[in-house]
């Protein structure tokens, strides 16, 4: 341990020996741990402790990063530690290897390899025949599989660690050098002054300096659900890991990192990437089912081979169990299971999710919950905030109403009466938590709420007022601040003036005006009559209809002392936000983001319903919604039975009344019980509501629940603390990264880093890409499984030779699982995915279209496998070099030579009679039908004439034919039969090696063709919706190209240099050419399949996958425009992940530069006609082959 550290409990702590502060590390940490109130009073509360720490409650620490003095951040970090936590070390690579080796299938393979190696090297005859080579080769394969598996796990762990490390990195507001600034939470040190606001997460322990109703949720530490109010008197200690649920305040940091409460009590870092997503769970179920089928096939193959071996060997000869015997059969069965068990399915999901998460981060989507990647692809409804998401959050005051006058532009200080100007300045500067800084390049950097920033900008640009000076002047006179409430839509601050208490209030105009009783004019305050209020509400409505956010500024006065006033009167904002005097109205413009209308149009084409849920005035919300394309007139045929011709907006109170209506509640109950009619009735009531204005967080939560009950997959955006329940309730919660509170971010699944709606559309695209990529891999893998299992089963059961040996199957497994997953799971999304229907909740992983391609490509491969396995070995005309000769042929050709090797040493065999004994034995074996009679030799059977001469018929049993009748009377000690058996045994043993060598060339061709067809089908699998462009984007995917190159390169090495291990022979260029040609034949076959599917009415109807219904006339009319007018799916659009605002038909034009949809009779989808236009099938997107169904 370094000398400058000491140990405190189990935590390594900085030493206090060199401490240059009035309080040491040990003393401060101990007091913080036990919340020592005696220490708190003794040091002079937060103010006194700040002085002891060379800090200041007003100005904080020295912001200069190069400073090393007592007031510097660096010195405080050296003495009191950094705000970081010990990370759990990543798993050791060898530990991951050990985990992989625990796989039961791999253990069986290891045991079988061990037995094969031991027997092959221990038994002399086995060693002579080099049967140990197979065992060693399997060991090598096991090592490769283990290392690849461990490497995948290690890479996955590393990837998720990098991504998850960003989860705990947040921006914190601190005061340094007297200015409020944003720093990373890891940069916080003891002595910092931190500003906490509603929704913030507390990242370090501290003491309250000033509390404005600061209330914390400490459930994560104490388990108590009741929030705790903090103040400077009885509850000054603030603990890390808690969250601000209400109010605001300033806190002096007293402990950070592992020395804080959160660091001491919680193990923050869990293993990265351990969570299992729903898609992974589905695939594991599928993998188990496929594995069971593979296990059944393996058992059947083992039993069939074992029975055949026992019959051929007339029993169970122990010495032959490793000579193409039970050991090999067991290994073969295990290998079939290894190939059949698709462990690559979960791996493909992991690779795809990790790859997508990394890419989504570049698209400003930070994924906090892994399953959100895939779930977002199935989203059918998006409930979006307005401010900052659909709009730019670049708010500016553009209109106003002050002192009885309407200003069409923001007024200057000279335009206003001095009294009005003073009231506006005080309200805008003090009733605000926002700040801004002017950078050296002149740019302004804002922190805080957009509305408050707009009011500060009004002070700066129009009134030439320094808001900081105003705050500094009145800061000590601030009595209480009442934060913004979603329920009341307003915020206030209470200031002590020389002769009274004044409350400055601002909020939603109609809500504040409802609480006003007076109106401030240039001549003084006048009564707010109903007529005046109605006039002002007219001004508000006019502004709102122009898309402006209307804010009312007001104030109220209270006496300094009032004996009749309750002691806790000022604790509740309800007591003070009454009898207000209206000072003025401001209209704040927040422009719609330029890219949002196109993004909303993309959602509509993708079958996703976009709803705006906002707290704004309904007129403002409607104006913005129309600009975005959320509200529009429906085409007549899409208006439904209710006759609604336009989508509509609804206010929160009306929505609450509707869902509480007894008739609605009854319909909802019936729907949840499965009543489809009730579901349709609810859809008629809800589907046309696209804007929810003046809504509360509870309204948003209820809307999400209702949509989910109706079967929608709902994505919700949120930025406030009160949005957390809706974010949690939704299928995918989307928090705003720039304006969202930490509470909202922690409740969310994905954080939209740029608060931009178009980024949400990109997350939909990536989510669909994940699902599509898994389907691609599934189609590829199931084709391999089908071919491997069918050929293995037929080869083992129906006779013939095993089509693929153990090592070849293991190589196929490596291609299929690891390399296939890497290639197909990393395909970038194609914008055409956004022209398909959402997957929703009920979409199957395998559809009929995939089954068709699996069956066609599988049959094509099986055909050539069987041709190579059964036809090629017969040596057809022109292919005689592949002929595999039969056992009788081998007996006749080699019997004389083998007999002279086998007979010496046998009973009564001498040099003199060796040749005659050999001739006799071979004649019996090849000419007497015992066991063969060949047509190669013309020699008559030597046994026939003696039996005829004896007047008897020659027995069919060889022992009797050779030893009985004219040859003797004893089959037990018969030299002749012993000679014949010895020669036959030698021929049988040598024939196995001969047959293996004979089969090597045709089986090498089979193996090469099989790999080539798999590689070709891997390319086919890139497009699974019957698109023609299987090579579209092929050369832009370097990962896919690398996988193909590595696969074919390793295959060439195996064929040409590793034949002794894989039991193959080198192929000549003609054989390679044929293999590649047959492999490439999978492409025209696939295109033919797609052509038939798309053009035969029966196939098209069977596989019909209608695109989303379009009810927006603007989108439909775009289909009649030329491609140049309507736009196309450009490279920019592909890179951004958002298709331009064009129709599917125009999009198809852009993709294929092909045909355009002609008008005509409407297609039908979901019970509605589609405006007289034919539906576009997703499979038509690339081809331009667009036609009516």
TrEMBL record:
It catalyses: Ca(2+)(in) + ATP + H2O = Ca(2+)(out) + ADP + phosphate + H(+). The chain crosses the membrane at residues 136-154, 285-307, 327-355, 782-800, 1038-1065, 1072-1092. Keywords: ATP-binding, Calcium, Calcium transport, Copper, Copper transport, Ion transport, Magnesium, Membrane, Metal-binding, Nucleotide-binding, Translocase, Transmembrane, Transmembrane helix, Transport. Residues 38-121 form the Cation-transporting P-type ATPase N-terminal domain. It comes from the Eukaryota. It is a multi-pass membrane protein. Its EC number is 7.2.2.10. One of its GO terms (molecular function) is metal ion binding. It is found in: Endomembrane system; Membrane. Its main location: membrane. One of its GO terms (biological process) is copper ion transport. InterPro entries: ATPase_P-typ_cation-transptr_C (IPR006068), ATPase_P-typ_cation-transptr_N (IPR004014), ATPase_P-typ_cyto_dom_N (IPR023299), ATPase_P-typ_P_site (IPR018303), ATPase_P-typ_TM_dom_sf (IPR023298), ATPase_P-typ_transduc_dom_A_sf (IPR008250), ATPase_P-type_domA (IPR059000), HAD-like_sf (IPR036412). GO terms for cellular component: endomembrane system; plasma membrane. Pfam families: Cation_ATPase, Cation_ATPase_C, Cation_ATPase_N, E1-E2_ATPase. NCBIfam families: ATPase-IIB_Ca, ATPase_P-type. PANTHER family: CALCIUM-TRANSPORTING ATPASE, CATION TRANSPORTING ATPASE. Catalyzes the hydrolysis of ATP coupled with the transport of calcium. Belongs to the cation transport ATPase (P-type) (TC 3.A.3) family. Type IIB subfamily. This is Calcium-transporting ATPase. It comes from Astrephomene gubernaculifera.
């Amino acid at each position: 341990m370094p000398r400058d550290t000491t140990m405190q409990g189990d935590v390594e702590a900085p030493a206090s020996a060199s401490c240059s502060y009035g309080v040491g590390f040990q003393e401060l940490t101990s007091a913080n741990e036990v919340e020592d109130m005696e220490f708190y009073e003794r040091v002079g509360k937060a103010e006194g402790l700040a002085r002891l720490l060379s800090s200041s409650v007003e100005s904080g620490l020295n912001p200069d990063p190069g400073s090393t003095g007592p007031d510097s951040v660096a010195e405080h970090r050296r003495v009191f530690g950094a705000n970081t936590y010990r990370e759990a070390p990543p798993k050791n690579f060898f530990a991951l290897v050990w985990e992989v080796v625990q796989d039961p299938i791999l253990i069986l393979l290891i045991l079988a390899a061990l037995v094969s190696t031991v027997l092959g090297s221990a038994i002399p005859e086995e060693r002579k025949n080099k049967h140990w080579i197979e065992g060693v080769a399997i060991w090598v394969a096991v090592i490769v599989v283990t290392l690849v598996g461990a490497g995948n796990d290690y890479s996955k762990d590393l990837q998720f660690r990098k991504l998850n490390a960003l989860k705990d990195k947040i921006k914190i507001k601190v005061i340094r050098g007297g200015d409020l600034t944003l720093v990373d939470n890891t940069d916080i040190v003891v002595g910092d002054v931190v500003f906490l606001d509603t929704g913030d997460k507390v990242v370090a322990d501290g003491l309250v300096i000033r509390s404005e109703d600061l209330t914390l949720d400490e459930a994560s530490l104490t388990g108590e659900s009741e929030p705790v109010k903090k103040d400077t008197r009885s509850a000054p200690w603030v603990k890390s890991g808690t969250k601000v649920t209400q109010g605001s305040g300033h806190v002096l940091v007293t402990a950070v990192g592992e020395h804080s409460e959160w660091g001491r009590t919680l193990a923050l870092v869990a293993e990265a990437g351990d969570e299992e997503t729903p898609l992974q769970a589905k695939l594991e179920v599928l993998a188990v089912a496929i594995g069971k089928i593979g296990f059944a096939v393996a058992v059947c193959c083992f039993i069939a081979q074992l029975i055949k071996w026992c019959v051929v060997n007339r029993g169970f000869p122990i010495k032959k169990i490793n000579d193409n015997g039970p050991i090999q059969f067991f290994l073969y069965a295990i290998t079939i299971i290894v190939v059949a068990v698709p462990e690559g399915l979960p791996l493909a999901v992991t690779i795809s999710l990790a790859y997508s998460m990394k890419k989504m981060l570049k698209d400003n989507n930070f994924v906090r919950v892994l399953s959100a990647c895939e779930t977002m692809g199935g989203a059918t409804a998006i409930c979006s905030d307005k401010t900052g998401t659909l709009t730019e959050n670049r708010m500016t005051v553009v209109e106003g109403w002050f002192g009885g006058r309407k200003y069409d532009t923001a007024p200057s200080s000279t335009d206003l009466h001095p009294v009005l100007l003073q009231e506006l300045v005080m309200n805008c500067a003090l009733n605000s938590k926002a700040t801004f800084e002017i950078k050296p390049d002149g740019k302004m950097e804002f922190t805080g709420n957009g509305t408050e920033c707009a009011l500060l900008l009004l002070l700066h640009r129009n009134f030439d007022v320094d808001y900081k000076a105003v705050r500094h002047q009145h800061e000590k006179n601030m009595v209480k601040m009442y934060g913004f409430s979603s329920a009341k839509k307003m915020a206030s601050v209470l200031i002590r003036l020389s002769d009274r208490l004044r409350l400055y209030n601002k909020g939603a105009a109609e809500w504040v005006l409802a609480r006003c009783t007076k109106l401030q004019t240039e001549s003084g305050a006048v009564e707010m009559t109903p007529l005046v209020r109605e006039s002002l509400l007219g001004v508000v409505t006019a502004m709102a209809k122009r898309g402006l956010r209307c804010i009312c500024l007001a104030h109220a006065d209270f006496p300094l002392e009032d004996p009749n006033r309750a002691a806790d009167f000022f604790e509740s904002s309800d007591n003070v936000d009454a009898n207000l005097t209206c000072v003025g109205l401001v209209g704040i413009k927040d422009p719609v983001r330029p890219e949002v209308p196109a993004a909303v149009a993309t959602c509509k084409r993708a079958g996703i319903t976009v709803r705006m849920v906002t707290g704004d005035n309904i007129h403002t919300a409607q104006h913005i919604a129309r600009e975005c394309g959320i509200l529009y007139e429906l085409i007549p045929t899409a208006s439904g039975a209710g006759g609604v011709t336009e989508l509509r907006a609804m206010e929160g109170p009306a929505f609450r009344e509707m869902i509480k209506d007894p008739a609605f509640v009854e319909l909802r109950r019936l729907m949840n019980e499965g009543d489809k009619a009730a579901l349709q009735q609810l859809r008629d009531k809800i589907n046309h509501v696209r804007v929810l204005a003046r809504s509360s967080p509870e309204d948003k939560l209820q809307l999400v629940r209702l949509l989910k009950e109706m079967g929608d997959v709902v994505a919700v955006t949120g930025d406030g603390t009160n949005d957390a329940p809706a974010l949690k309730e939704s299928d995918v919660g989307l928090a705003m990264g720039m304006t969202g509170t930490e509470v909202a971010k922690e409740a969310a699944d994905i954080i939209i880093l740029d608060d931009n709606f178009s980024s949400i559309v990109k997350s939909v695209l990536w989510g669909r890409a994940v699902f599509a990529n898994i389907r691609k891999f599934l189609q590829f893998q199931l084709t391999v499984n089908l071919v491997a299992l069918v050929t293995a089963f037929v080869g083992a059961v129906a006779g013939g030779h095993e089509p693929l040996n153990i090592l070849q199957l293991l190589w196929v497994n490596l291609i299929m699982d690891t390399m296939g997953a890497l290639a197909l799971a990393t395909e970038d999304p194609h914008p055409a995915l956004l022209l398909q229907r959402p997957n929703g909740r009920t979409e199957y992983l395998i559809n009929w279209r995939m089954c068709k391609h699996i069956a066609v490509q599988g049959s094509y491969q099986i055909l050539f496998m069987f041709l190579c396995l059964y036809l090629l070995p017969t040596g057809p005309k022109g292919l005689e070099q592949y002929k595999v000769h039969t056992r009788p042929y081998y007996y006749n050709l080699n019997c004389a030579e083998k007999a002279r090797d086998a007979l010496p040493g046998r009973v009564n065999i001498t040099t003199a009679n060796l040749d005659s004994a050999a001739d006799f034995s071979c004649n019996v074996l090849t000419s007497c039908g015992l066991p063969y009679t060949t047509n190669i030799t013309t020699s008559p059977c030597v046994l026939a004439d003696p039996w005829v001469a004896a007047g008897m018929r020659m027995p069919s049993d060889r022992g009797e034919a050779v030893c009985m009748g004219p040859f003797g009377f004893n089959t037990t000690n018969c030299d002749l039969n012993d000679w014949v058996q010895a020669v036959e045994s030698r021929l049988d043993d040598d024939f196995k090696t001969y047959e293996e060598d004979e089969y090597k060339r045709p089986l090498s061709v089979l193996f090469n063709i099989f790999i080539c067809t798999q590689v070709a089908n891997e390319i086919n699998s890139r497009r699974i919706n019957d698109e023609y462009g299987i090579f579209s984007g092929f050369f832009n995917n370097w990962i896919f190209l690398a996988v193909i190159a590595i696969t074919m390169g390793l295959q060439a090495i195996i064929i040409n240099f590793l034949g002794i291990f894989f039991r193959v022979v080198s192929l000549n260029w003609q054989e390679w050419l044929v293999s590649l040609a047959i492999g490439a034949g999978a492409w025209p076959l696939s295109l033919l399949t797609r052509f038939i599917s798309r053009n035969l009415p029966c196939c098209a109807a069977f596989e019909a996958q209608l695109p989303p219904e379009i009810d927006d006339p603007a989108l439909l009319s775009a289909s009649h425009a030329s491609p140049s007018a309507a736009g196309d799916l450009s490279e920019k659009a592909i890179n951004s992940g958002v298709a331009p605002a064009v129709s599917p038909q125009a999009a198809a034009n852009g993709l294929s530069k092909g045909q355009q949809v002609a008008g005509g009779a409407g297609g039908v989808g979901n019970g509605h006609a589609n405006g007289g236009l034919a539906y576009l099938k997703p499979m038509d997107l690339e081809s331009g082959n667009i036609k009516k169904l």
